[in-house]
Design a protein that fits this description.
five-stranded parallel sheet; four-stranded parallel sheet; 31% helix
Length: 285
Amino acid sequence: MGSTRSDVVVSVAELGRLIAAGDPVTLLDVRWTLAEPDGSDAYLSGHLPGAVYVSLDSDLTDHNVNGRGRHPLPSGRALEAAARRWGVREGVPTVVYDDWNRAGSARAWWVLTASGIGDVRILDGGLAAWTAAGGVLETGPVTPPPGDVHVVHEDLYHGARPTLTAQQAGSAPGPLLDARAPERFRGDVEPVDAVAGHIPGAINVPSTKLLAEDGTVLPTSDLRALLTDHGVDGSAAVGAYCGSGVTAALTVAALAAAGVDAALFPGSWSEWSSDSTRPVARGAQ
């Protein structure tokens, strides 16, 4: 899609200037972790002024879909209804943020942009960056005026962002990046899925390695150096997966910030490992 860093992330300073100038902006709070998937209580206790809570498990996932892993993508129609409920409007920028490793916000960024909704960016550094810069928080729920956004793609598996099927992921001609922690990649542990290991031929680049210590996406030069170290030079198509398509969305976002388009395997390891006929690799790459 030819993205640049400014297309993918927005700094706290820039967001602050938008708000101070009175420019319209829609703020979405997408707090989620594996250990605490429901971030609503954390949201209610303190969020950016005017931000609306978005549930990754309920709004950015369709659990009625079978065979697509633990976090199947929602339909475009369901997403459009949810986005309008959040107050997302045509011609108004949307900023998504979270408080854990940009996982929730990256998922929201990927889903919204894959549906065809434009001008969606991730708050660089998340909630911590906002408060560290002196940004104020407010408590309680926010009910915005209904939005009017239109979703272009009904099927996000074939939407505006490239995706991989399990078959394509297993025979990818270019680098396939595994965004999980090294111990899960090696198969030493598997806290969520039934089978431990990784897709044969995958390269382990944990999504957290794409972030600086302050939680912001690495500078473009550092991202490109990291990718080059792992055999990603932009000469071949790149794929990304994780446990269930959430943290790998950060991989796609970070690569987009560095000018590299990557395809997401939405079902990721949870879909791959659900079929006992698929090969499983273990150990370091």
